[in-house]
């Protein structure tokens, strides 16, 4: 009975008045959004009464476009993750303005893929992972799920490491890389839907806030006697904690407030590390840190429960933060407008910049983002039985997605041109990356009123936080769609978050941001994500080309041909990445032989996905069945 109660508590609706045991399987069928969570897009009674028989689309409405705005901006965050920012800055530093045209056309290719993903989700009412489960046999479905999870883990490692680097910069180096990973890891709470767990976390963060406020008031009372109070307390603390390991444990427990770590270290050394004024600043900042993290946790906990629109607005703020931060950097560094326009219009590609060019193309299209967008568009109430409603939704989603990608392109342009202006042709161009970009910017443009180092860190933190949260959402849709898991949201979020956070923590513990091995790791992660692209694009193009799936919204022959050309081009880019990584970074005959076997299986699976829906495959299957 106990195990049954536990299982029921993990199911949607289980525990506390859930559905009866006789409920149908469809009631628990995995879905992107429940009907109660969807946003109504009707702006008048005529919208509700329309039977969808009108042959033409209704006239354009700004109000209706606003109702559809949101999913595209969550989708465009994958174009702005730390991996993309690193590709932008390295392209600017190594190639100057020469690769801006490639950034433009890569964004156009990414837009085509994302528009197809949105079209699939709207026309079918299901997202890509669900449709793959219905389309392919179980072994192929599980293989696709495993490949997509690998891509998610690779992307999440880069995103969390990017956030951790930003936190380390903003804390003045007080928070180590692994500490930033711990802080970033707690954004999965945003996906929790159980109020019991939300109130538990809110209680913990609220107590931290009250404790910080208590110390702040104590500071005001003690004033000049703070130095004596801290030294007196340090004597007792040093006598009580004799072991260094115990001090480390205290520092870990106080990780959410870096200034607390500084105070504990000071008291453990007899108060000799800090003077009274420094202690005053540290204790004052303790309250600010507690307030900041408590507020973030509170926002993450309740945004989704308050509605999809609130969550989309929160991500809009993060995108605006990135846009403002990098626009300020653009204004301070003043790149050449003439060179910018020439770089966008005139294609240039030299042998020295091929690596950066491949990096730009490979970073733009993210496999998990294809699955994510097809699920996000289902957040609106659309009657898929009415052709005019589906046609209208596709129309507005196309506009909204293009606008979002224009914003992301502007941000990427700002980053690329800033580093093109500052570091192209310099000695730092070959060594620059996320971990040292802020320091290089500070050394070159550090005379402004607000340090450019912190402007860069704020933009990087917004990029990392937004992309890790959307990565968590994508992980839930991917796992739920492929495996049809009937689990509560908070449990799915915890499982999918663990897939990425555990390897990320290992990376953070064994690598330092200044370690040159980190560059090799980033390159390996880029290769890992790039080789998964066919397992998102091939099923997508296959499904949008099938009339049995799309009905009257099946794509035309021209769109189909262009989509396959883009897919083949990206697969060639991936082949170059794999070959380059194989030649430069893979050592040892045994390792190379093993990799060749893996590549053979990889290519065979891609060929299977391509030919599965062709007449040749049908004839082979029929001949095999007849012979048996």
From TrEMBL:
GO terms for cellular component: membrane. This is Metal transporter. Keywords: Membrane, Transmembrane, Transmembrane helix, Transport. PANTHER family: NATURAL RESISTANCE-ASSOCIATED MACROPHAGE PROTEIN 2, SOLUTE CARRIER PROTEIN FAMILY 11 MEMBER. Belongs to the NRAMP (TC 2.A.55) family. Residues 24-39 have a biased composition (Basic and acidic residues). Residues 1-56 are annotated as: Disordered. The lineage of its organism: Eukaryota, Viridiplantae, Streptophyta, Embryophyta, Tracheophyta. It comes from Eragrostis curvula. GO terms for molecular function: cadmium ion transmembrane transporter activity; manganese ion transmembrane transporter activity. The keyword Cell division does not apply. It is found in: Membrane. HAMAP family: NRAMP. Pfam families: Nramp.
């Amino acid at each position: 009975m106990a195990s049954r109660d536990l299982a029921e508590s993990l199911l949607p609706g289980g525990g506390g008045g859930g559905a009866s045991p006789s409920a149908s399987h469809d009631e628990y069928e995995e879905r992107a959004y429940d009907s109660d969570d969807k946003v109504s897009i009707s702006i008048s009674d005529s919208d509700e009464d329309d039977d969808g028989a009108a042959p033409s689309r209704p006239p354009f409405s700004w109000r209706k476009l606003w109702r559809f705005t949101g999913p595209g901006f969550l989708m465009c965050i994958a174009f702005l993750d730390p991996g993309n920012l690193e590709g932008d800055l390295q392209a600017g530093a190594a190639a100057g303005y020469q690769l801006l045209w490639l950034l433009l056309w890569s964004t156009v290719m990414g837009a085509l893929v994302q528009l197809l993903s949105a079209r699939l989700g709207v026309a079918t009412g299901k997202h890509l992972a669900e449709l793959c489960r219905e389309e392919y046999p179980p072994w192929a479905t599980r293989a696709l799920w495993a490949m997509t999870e690998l891509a998610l883990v690779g992307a999440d490692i880069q995103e969390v490491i990017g956030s951790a680097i930003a936190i380390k910069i903003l804390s003045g180096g007080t928070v180590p890389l692994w500490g930033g990973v711990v802080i970033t890891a707690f954004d999965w709470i945003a996906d929790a839907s159980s109020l019991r767990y939300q109130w538990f976390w809110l209680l913990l963060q609220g107590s931290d806030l009250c404790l910080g406020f208590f110390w702040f008031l104590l500071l005001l009372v003690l004033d000049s006697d703070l130095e004596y109070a801290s030294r007196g307390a340090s004597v007792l603390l040093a006598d009580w904690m004799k072991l260094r390991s115990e001090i480390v444990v205290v520092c870990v427990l106080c990780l959410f407030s870096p200034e607390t770590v500084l105070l504990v270290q000071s008291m453990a050394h007899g108060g000799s590390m800090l003077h009274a004024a420094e202690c005053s600043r540290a204790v004052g900042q303790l309250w600010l840190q507690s307030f900041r993290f408590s507020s973030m946790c509170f926002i993450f906990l309740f945004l989704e429960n308050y509605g999809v629109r609130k969550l989309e607005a929160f991500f809009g703020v993060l995108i605006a933060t990135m846009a403002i931060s990098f626009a300020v950097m653009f204004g301070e560094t003043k790149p050449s407008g003439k060179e910018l326009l020439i770089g966008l219009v005139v294609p240039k590609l030299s042998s020295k910049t091929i690596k950066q060019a491949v990096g730009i193309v490979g970073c733009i299209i993210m496999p998990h983002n294809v699955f994510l967008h097809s699920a996000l568009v289902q957040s609106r109430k659309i009657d898929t039985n009415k052709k005019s409603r589906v046609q209208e939704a596709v129309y507005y989603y196309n506009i909204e997605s293009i606008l979002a990608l224009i914003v992301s392109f502007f941000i990427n342009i700002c980053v690329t041109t800033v580093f093109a202006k500052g570091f192209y042709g310099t000695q730092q161009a070959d060594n620059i990356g996320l971990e040292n970009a802020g320091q290089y910017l500070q050394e070159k443009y550090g005379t402004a009123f607000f340090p450019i180092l912190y402007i860069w860190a704020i933009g990087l933190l917004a990029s990392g936080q937004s992309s890790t949260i959307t990565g968590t959402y994508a992980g839930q849709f991917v796992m739920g769609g492929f495996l049809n898991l009937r689990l509560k949201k908070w449990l799915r979020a915890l499982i999918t978050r663990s897939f990425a956070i555990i390897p990320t923590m290992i990376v953070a513990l064994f690598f330092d941001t200044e370690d040159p091995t980190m560059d090799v790791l980033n390159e390996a992660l880029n290769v890992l994500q790039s080789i998964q692209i066919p397992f998102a694009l091939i099923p997508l193009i296959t499904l949008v080309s099938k009339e049995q799936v799309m009905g009257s919204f099946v794509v035309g022959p021209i769109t189909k041909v262009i989509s396959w050309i883009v897919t083949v081009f990206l697969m060639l880019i991936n082949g170059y990445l794999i070959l380059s990584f194989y030649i430069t970074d893979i050592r040892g005959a045994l390792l190379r032989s093993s990799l060749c076997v893996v590549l053979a299986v990889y290519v065979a699976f891609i060929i299977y996905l391509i030919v599965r829906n062709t007449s040749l495959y049908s004839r082979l299957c029929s001949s095999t069945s007849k012979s048996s």
